[in-house]
Write a structure and sequence with these properties.
Layout lengths: L16 H7 L2 E4 L10 H10 L2 E5 L5 H6 L6 E6 L4 H4 L2 H11 L8 E9 L7 H20 L7 E7 L3 E3 L7 E2 L4 H14 L3 E4 L2 H7 L6 H4 L7 E2 L6 E2 L2 H15 L7 E5 L15 H16 L15 E2 L74 H13 L15
Parallel strand pairs: 1-2, 1-12, 2-3, 3-4, 4-5, 5-8, 8-11
Antiparallel strand pairs: 6-7, 9-10
Helix pairs in contact: 5-6, 6-7
Bound molecules: 2-acetamido-2-deoxy-beta-D-glucopyranose (NAG) (4 copies).
């Protein structure tokens, strides 16, 4: 039965953004790998209509940053993977910050720079080696411009950086990335910026539709599992994924670093083999997720921490490569109409005024909107069901060696 979150959170039923800002802090990814999106000016009311107070870009599109001046919306701007190498030069880093950040402050409230996107899971050693130096260099540039107190430096990771993701308490990073992640966490710890993870239960389901409970990935009630080691109860896969990342961070000794979710979402359409990619499932996933955000619920391991979730994504993006799902993660069609009904009233917010020039992120797919990211969609996503969970204690207490993420977990139901 479709769940109707409006009955539980009446405040979500209406579009009045004034209500939302008090009760609800939603983040949204504004990817622009498309040739048919509305002009950024027209996107402002759309963002407000869903109660989003935070927007994440994959670049620093001047049109968007200008359009959102004096709106109170907070921004994460992106520095593309293709720019990492040159950021090692302090002059270039400072020039980038001046042009793409300082120029828009304070009218546009840029609060973070995401340096690179899902860099470590590209398995490109040059790119990976440049990541931390680029982050440090951009941070130094902010210090020299006296902006480091208001603008944070971070980077967003694909969940594939985890080698073990089940049970959540056993979460651990890929061994070949541990050294780099340790240094990156040390950086976060020093400058006080968050560690960002992109987490998609969809990919776990898509990889294993017969074994993974749809209710568990869609936050529906009645499903769940207990982590045999911690005894914590998980009623959805998203929290299990996030706590696996918490465990991995903690194992390296950085419990003080705050973990946040830079992307999560569900596609409304996919290829024949992309199980679960339907408008109804997308509505349930994002609707239930928004309810969790409104309820300000943390994960079982960190009940009081704010995950600062950014939903992926605002629009369907027609120029994204890859399977059909990649072009159908949007809450909205390019004409501003909702892809499915989330209970927001967006009537008449956007006319079909599309700007001919694609966003400046267009063409840079390497740093463009995830989840195109790292290819194999099942990479890094745990695949478990409630039924499996009941069987776990005997199996999992023996050893966690079989929990290698790349292994497809295929339990007998
Ligand atoms: C920008 O966002 C930060 C973080 O929420 C907030 O503390 C600050 O007051 C905002 N600045 C402006 C000018 O709105
Ligand atoms: C939605 O908004 C439109 C335009 O503001 C308004 O005319 C309409 O009555 C609203 N519908 C609902 C169900 O609130
Ligand atoms: C589209 O919107 C932009 C920005 O609001 C405006 O400058 C432009 O004139 C509009 N174009 C049309 C055809 O309405
Ligand atoms: C990167 O390397 C890991 C570990 O060797 C592997 O599991 C993953 O599939 C690789 N990813 C890509 C995109 O090549």
């Amino acid at each position: 039965m479709p769940m109707d979150f409006r009955h539980h959170s009446p405040i979500l039923l209406f579009s009045a953004s004034l209500f939302f800002t008090a009760a609800f802090s939603l983040g949204i990814n504004y990817g622009q790998i498309a040739n048919n999106l509305p002009h950024p000016e027209a996107v402002v009311p759309l963002v407000k209509s869903i109660g989003a107070t935070r927007v994440k870009l994959y670049d620093a599109d001047p049109r968007v940053l200008k359009a959102f001046a004096n709106t109170g919306v907070e921004f994460i701007v992106g520095l593309g993977n293709e720019d990492l190498a040159r950021m090692r030069d302090p002059k270039q880093a400072q020039a980038w910050v001046k042009t793409n950040v300082q120029r828009y402050l304070p009218a546009t409230n840029i609060t973070s720079i995401a340096v690179g996107n899902e860099v470590l899971t590209f398995n490109d050693s040059t790119l990976s080696t440049n990541l931390l130096p680029a982050m440090e260099s951009v941070h130094s540039a902010l210090v020299s411009l006296n902006l480091d107190k208001q603008v944070m430096v971070t980077t967003a990771h694909n969940l594939g950086i985890l080698e073990v993701s089940y049970p959540p308490s056993a979460g651990a990073f890929r061994r070949d990335l541990t050294q780099k992640l340790s240094c990156i966490l040390d950086f976060h710890s020093k400058v006080g910026s968050p560690f960002l993870i992109n987490a998609y239960p969809f990919f776990a389901y898509k990889a294993n539709p017969k074994q993974v409970s749809l209710d568990f990935v869609l936050f529906e009630t009645g499903s769940g599992m207990v982590d045999p080691a911690s005894g914590l109860h998980y009623d959805n896969m998203f929290y299990a994924q996030v706590d696996a990342a918490h465990s991995a961070v903690e194992k390296l000794g950085y419990k003080n670093v705050c973990l946040q979710i830079s992307e999560t979402g569900w596609p409304s359409k996919g290829d024949a083999d992309e199980f679960g990619a339907t408008p109804e499932n997308a509505r349930k996933y994002n609707g239930n997720l928004m309810k969790l955000i409104a309820d300000k619920k943390g994960t079982p391991m960190r009940p009081n921490s704010d995950l600062n979730i950014y939903v992926f994504a605002l629009f369907n993006e027609n120029e994204k490569p890859g399977p059909t799902s990649e072009r159908n993660f949007g809450l909205f069609k390019p004409d501003g109409t909702p892809v499915y009904n989330l209970g927001f009233n967006t009537t008449g917010l956007i006319s079909t005024n599309t700007s001919s020039s694609a966003g400046s992120s267009g063409g840079t797919t390497s740093s463009g909107s995830s989840p195109a990211g790292t290819g194999t969609s099942s990479n890094g996503y745990l695949s478990i069901t409630a039924d499996d969970a009941e069987r776990l204690p005997s199996q999992w207490s023996l050893s966690f060696l079989c929990l290698i993420v790349s292994t497809v977990l295929a339990f007998q139901l």
